[in-house]
Amino acid sequence: MTSYQLSLNLGSPAPRAVDVYYFAVLPEEEAAVEALELARVDQQKYGLSGKIYDRHRLHVSLAKIREGRGLSEAVGTYAADLGSRVKAAAFQVRFDRLISVGHGNRHPRILTCNGVVHGLNALVRQITGLPHLSAETIPHMTLYYGDREAPRVDLPRPIAWTVHDFALVHTRRGCGDFAIIDRWSLSL
User: Fold this and answer.
1) If you ran DSSP here, which 8-state letter would residue 139 be given?
2) Under the phi-then-psi rule, with left for phi > 0, alpha for psi from -120 to 50, and beta for the rest, what region is 104?
3) Fewer beta carbons under 10 A from the terminal one: N or C of the chain?
């Protein structure tokens, strides 16, 4: 028996984006502008390719709340409760170097610093509820993903700002979506 049914090979369906909720610190306007200018100069100097992050996507990650497919009101409620409980003081972030971190064929070009930022660690401990972190967090802010590794650059003038608040962020990995869900002031 011969089948005359038309076969459509449409390929596999496009993978669904992964939703990620996390707490982050966002740079002040002046620091963000400096960081993006540094990224442009860096790309030109080392002949790197890769899309530089948009201004509104620059952040320093603090703690991931959830990663999975789909939105969840329960996650938003849980995170809002965590954020509202934080009682921490403002602190300063000072990035004094630009480095590449190897990840296969993607090399994030990140701003980082020479040591631990105690205010940042205190904030992470408050959010996570862990009295001691297994490792002190050294902050970093990704500027773009380069096509290869580039040398470390020590900045003649650090990119710095005082952190007065933190945010709950929702991103959709694979889509480039980035949304601030809520923000809380550092009150001490």
Assistant:
1) P
2) left
3) N
* Count of alpha carbons within 13 angstroms of residue 123, beta-carbon side: 32
Q: Is 35 helix (H, G, I), strand (E, B) or coil?
A: helix
pLDDT in tens, 75-114: 888 888 989 999 989 999 999 999 998 777 789 999 999 8
CA 184/CA 167 separation, integer angstroms: 6
What is the predicted pLDDT for the residue at 137? 66
DSSP for 92-114 reads EEEEEEEEE--BTTBEEEEEE-S
Q: What is the mean pLDDT of residues 126-147?
A: 80
**CA–CA distance from 92 to each of 83, 117, 118, 156, 162 (Å)?**
20, 8, 9, 18, 4
Q: Contact at 8 Å (CB) between 23 and 88?
A: no
- The residue written with tokens 């610190």 in the block is 25
Domains of the chain, each with CATH number or no CATH = 18-185 (3.90.1140.10)
Q: What is the pTM of this model?
A: 0.84
